[in-house]
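Q: What residues go here?
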């Protein structure tokens, strides 16, 4: 495995970046699904981003398929026993039991005989044996939801991932918080959200909005009790107990998505939301954070609103700024629009992208071919093309080094098990170091310093980004 990592290590030390390019890679073995869930995770510990697709196919049969990645972005169906098939639900990976591999939750509408017909809402939690084979956990104590959102997050800073679930459950909207005991056993803890709202067509987002070191919470969707569109923002007290923020100035949405990201590189988490507003208008709005968790709507943005889709950030052109993709339906068109971040929270819609607009869609970014840029899978429905799943390979074109000093920065030893030394030229100052996994998730961040600790990271390839006063260095690093 380490030999493979060594062969894949290369340096990206550029300060000028050309426009990003994507190409469609035809993968006929991937199932085409709408009302979909798309998730990447390294399920078998080989350092590659594997792919889960769930949803209804073109004949409206329900499907769930897990595909293993060969490291070059080619996917083959795994040997897993049948996973629960769903539509209008959610799927998420997380290491629920602290054993170093990615476990799996699936919830949604599935094929089951009920008094009301042949479909019902169910939830299943699966434990990974470390090689990518999943076994169902009996009686996990979770309420099934559809038209749903799920999110794993360590809410109480005890080192394990807890769980939030929201959606249609038991004939009404529901929002549930479950606390993990560290072994993958979850206990209902709704008392931790005293002013909880119960939602269908739900969206859940979490981030540290006030820079106090704990994740705060946003819930938005349709209230199951009266069909009103509602939103609530909560601050975490550090132990997983949430207090509702009064009048946060954020408009509620449903049938859409919300995500926190630092879009202007000022050290705090901003907020992007898309979907239908209380008047059912399709919107896409960016709110800027003042650093204390107070948000202001940014005016004059180029974003085109949509619903029945999603929104996510990724750095698609390796310029140090987070770009954003929005998918969904806006009469009369299906949308899949990429907006490039120009800095200072100013965005421009990318043109000539090959993305096919999708309704009832979901998508996810990951570096599927280990070439240090973020690729993309979108699954949904397009008229007149039908139900589709498309893999887009990022072919970002990097130019040569503009600042020769950056080419002399060295990271060693690489591969490593414990730490990496950062050797910089005399007169150069390290401002910040970040490490990202192949899903684009920030896994290590430190201010300055010339030693980077990666001891706690799983064995895999990562992208180290070294910010200096002379420029930015990107280099693949291997942890074994």
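A:
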């Amino acid at each position: 495995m380490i030999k493979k990592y060594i062969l894949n290590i290369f340096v990206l030390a550029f300060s000028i970046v050309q426009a990003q390019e994507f190409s469609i890679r035809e993968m006929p073995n991937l199932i085409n699904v709408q009302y979909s869930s798309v998730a990447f995770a390294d399920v078998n510990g080989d350092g590659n981003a594997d792919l889960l697709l769930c949803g209804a196919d073109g004949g409206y049969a329900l499907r769930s398929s897990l595909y293993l990645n060969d490291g070059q972005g080619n996917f083959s169906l795994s040997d897993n026993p049948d996973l629960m098939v769903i539509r209008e639900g959610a799927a998420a990976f997380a290491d629920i039991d602290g054993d170093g591999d990615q476990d799996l939750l699936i919830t949604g509408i599935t094929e089951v005989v009920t008094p009301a017909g042949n479909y019902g809402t169910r939830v299943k939690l699966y434990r990974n044996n470390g090689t990518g084979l999943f076994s169902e956990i009996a009686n996990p104590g979770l309420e099934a939801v559809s038209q749903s959102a799920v999110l794993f997050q360590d809410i109480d800073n005890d080192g394990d991932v807890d769980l939030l679930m929201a959606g249609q459950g038991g004939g009404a909207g529901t929002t549930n918080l479950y606390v993990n005991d560290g072994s993958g056993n979850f206990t209902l803890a709704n008392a931790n959200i005293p002013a909880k709202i119960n939602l269908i067509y739900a969206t859940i987002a979490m981030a540290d909005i006030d820079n106090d070191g704990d994740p705060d919470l946003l819930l938005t969707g349709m209230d199951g009790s009266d069909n009103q569109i509602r939103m609530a923002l909560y601050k975490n007290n550090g132990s997983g107990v949430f207090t509702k923020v009064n009048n946060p100035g954020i408009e509620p949405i449903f049938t859409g998505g919300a995500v926190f990201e630092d879009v202007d590189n000022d050290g705090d988490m901003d907020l992007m939301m898309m979907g239908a507003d209380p008047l059912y208008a399709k919107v896409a709005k960016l709110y800027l954070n003042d650093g204390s968790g107070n948000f202001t709507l940014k005016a004059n943005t180029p974003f085109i609103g949509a619903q029945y889709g999603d929104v996510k950030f990724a750095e698609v052109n390796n310029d140090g700024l987070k770009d954003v993709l929005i998918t969904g339906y806006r009469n009369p068109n299906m949308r899949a629009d990429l907006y490039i971040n120009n800095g200072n929270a100013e965005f421009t819609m990318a043109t000539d992208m090959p993305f096919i607009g999708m309704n009832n869609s979901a998508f996810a970014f990951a570096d599927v071919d280990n070439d240090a840029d973020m690729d993309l899978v979108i699954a949904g429905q397009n008229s007149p093309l039908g139900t589709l799943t498309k893999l887009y390979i990022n072919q970002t074109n990097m130019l040569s080094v503009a600042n020769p000093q950056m080419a002399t920065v060295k990271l060693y030893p690489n591969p490593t098990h414990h730490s990496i030394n950062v050797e910089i030229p005399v007169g150069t100052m390290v401002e910040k170091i970040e490490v990202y996994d192949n899903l684009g998730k920030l896994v290590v961040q430190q201010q300055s310093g010339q030693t980077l600790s990666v001891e706690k990271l799983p064995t895999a390839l990562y992208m180290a980004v070294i910010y200096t006063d002379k420029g930015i260095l990107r280099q693949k690093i291997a942890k074994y």
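A: Context that may help when evaluating the design: The radius of gyration is 22 Å. The domain at 406-479 is CATH 2.60.40.1930 (Immunoglobulin-like).
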